[in-house]
User: Fold this.
Amino acid sequence: MSRIIKWAIVLIFCSFALVNLNDPDGFIWVPVYVTVAFLPLASIEKVSVRLLKFCSLFLFIVGALVALGLLNSIMPWQADDRMGNM
Assistant:
């Protein structure tokens, strides 16, 4: 990938993380977006293999917890039903 595409990916995912800062479940998604945002920089800068393995393990664990529904108990519940009947 060219450097322009890599930096575009970094900017897009950093902006996704910024948008999720005020989200009720932002504590889950902000670290995920930030981790994904900085992975394209691994080939631009010298990043250790250990750090890349840690990031991959972190993303896998968070994804597994979300997929299994284990994080549902700590996520805030929406009090009203604004999206109903759409």
